[in-house]
Each structure stands twice: as C-alpha cells, then as structure tokens.
Amino acid sequence: MSELTNDTEYRDWIVSIKSRVQASQIKAAVAVNYAMLELYWYLGEQIIERQETAKWGDGFLQQMSKDLSAEFPEIKGFSYRNLRRMRQWYTFWASTDAIRPQVVARLEKKWPQAVANTESPQNQWCSNLLHRFPGAITASFSKS
To answer: Is 59 helix (H, G, I), strand (E, B) or coil?
Structure first.
C-alpha cells in the first residue's frame, strides 16, 4: 500500500476525489439551508394569514408549538419562541420589497459560484467550513 501513497498520480487522484466530496457537502448544506428558509417563510406566512383571518387568540402559537413538537419530536425548531421569530422574519422581509429582490439576486449569483469554485483560494473557506462544524448538516434540523 505504501507504493500507492508515494505515487503522484494516485495522490492527485485522491485530492480530486476529496475536492468532489467537499463540493458535494457544500451543495448539500446550501440545499438544506434553502429548504429550511423556504419552510420558515411558509410557516411565517401561514401564521400571519391565520392571525388575520381566524378568531384565534395569542395562545394559538403556543398550541401550534406543542402540536408540531409532538408530531416531529426529532426537530427542535418548533418552540413558541422560534415560531414567533418566523412570523417576525416573514413580516419584516415581506414588507421590504425594495431590499429583498436585491439581496436575493446577489445570493443567487454568488452561492452557486462559490459552490462551484470551492477549489479556488478565495473560496477555500467554503470547503473548510464543514470541517470546522462536523455534523452541521444534520444538526441544523435538530438544533433550530
């Protein structure tokens, strides 16, 4: 086996595999974050709509938290506090039409590029980020 580790072609091949794995990890993290933001946006929107149309009191967020936490015990992101934050986040960003399109446009341009160029020195932080936080992808669902 030591012959392989001394072989330059083999080492270069392993480096290219490593690079591909890291790029895939980053793509997965970006996809997870995007899906979580979509969910939070949807929940915030639903909370606002229900508060405007239904005759429920303020206690409905606490009940919603209990119900969602019971349905999804492995996900810790449905606390009363988090649901309030989702509502606030949706309210803030839904009312700032002048800012949101600019921010989204910038993210749409930069994130795919950063993911695709993980080997470049200026984007090296992307591939190193997942190594600093092992389990970050799976933990993001359970530690919201």
So the answer is: coil
